[in-house]
Amino acid sequence: DIQMTQSPSSLSASVGDRVTITCRASQSVRSNLNWYQQRPGKVPKLLIYGGSTLQSGVPTRFSGSGGGTDFTLTISSLQSEDFATYFCQQSYSLPSFGGGTKIEI
Amino acid sequence: QAHLVESGGGLVKPGGSLRLSCAPSGFTFSDYYMSWIRQAPGRGLEWVSYITHNGRSHQSADSVKGRFTISRDNTNNALYLQMNGLTDDDTAVYYCAREVRGHYFVFDLWGQGAPVSVSS
């Protein structure tokens, strides 16, 4: 099984900040890495797949990069609606998720 | 607009069984691979099972293998998860999720979730 580790587990930020979240896989997943956003009490929403492809309708302030075992999600200018928990997920083999990163005010 | 709606969750005693259902709408269900994914209270996400578009192949996580069975009825547009031998560790919200066509295990559509609580 591929283990996914996210860091940090939580962070405090302000509107307008640039935020970066990292995700590390226990073995190479090539570019098969996806990012989801989950707002409190809501359903996870796909943001980025294939490491860097923005899902339709997702604002361009979100971007993904990386490959192999190390990936990052960047929010270029944090908006109020972005305060949420973010999960990475590998789709190279049977899926596994990271533990999540909660962005708080 | 595409939607998924789960049903069948509830409170069950350890060792008991439940069957979850997922009703799709707004898209051609038989074209898509589907999965069940769960989230324990205050915890992260755990993939449970997947099934191919035609139901001919499926697989489950080790944590539920031999106890949970995924199935689908493309004629009546429904996805199921039969859960047997439930334990406390199975307490979670269970989501059905659609995979992006051509991208295995990329989930672009999620239901609202069915809460399952296992307690004596």
- Which structural class do the helices and strands of chain B define? mainly beta
Distance between the termini of chain B: 40 Å
- Subunit arrangement of the protein: heterodimer
Helix content of chain A: under 10%
**Shape category of chain B:** globular
Element-level helix/strand string of chain A: EEEEEEEEEEE
Number of discrete helical segments of chain A:
0
Topology overview:
The complex is a heterodimer of chains A (105) and B (120).
Chain A: E1 4-7, E2 10-12, E3 19-25, E4 33-38, E5 45-49, E6 53-54, E7 62-67, E8 70-75, E9 85-90, E10 96-97, E11 101-104
Chain B: E1 3-7, E2 10-12, E3 18-25, E4 34-39, E5 45-51, E6 58-60, E7 68-73, E8 78-83, E9 92-99, E10 107-110, E11 114-118
Parallel strand pairs in B: 2-11
Antiparallel strand pairs in B: 1-3, 3-8, 4-5, 4-9, 5-6, 7-8, 9-10, 9-11
Write a structural description:
The complex is a heterodimer of chains A (105) and B (120). Chain A has 105 residues and is mostly beta strands. Chain A contains no helices and eleven strands. In chain A, strand 7 and strand 8 (70-75) form a beta hairpin. The radius of gyration of chain A is 13 Å and the shape is globular. In chain B, the strands form two sheets. In chain B, strands 2, 4, 5, 6, 9, 10 and 11 form a seven-stranded mixed sheet that branches. In chain B, a hairpin with a 4-residue loop joins strand 7 (68-73) and strand 8. The chains are: A mainly beta (105), B mainly beta (120). Chain A binds chain B through residues 1, 32, 34, 36, 43-46, 49-50, 55, 87, 89, 91, 94-100, and chain B through 35, 44-47, 59, 61-62, 95, 100, 103-108, 110-113.
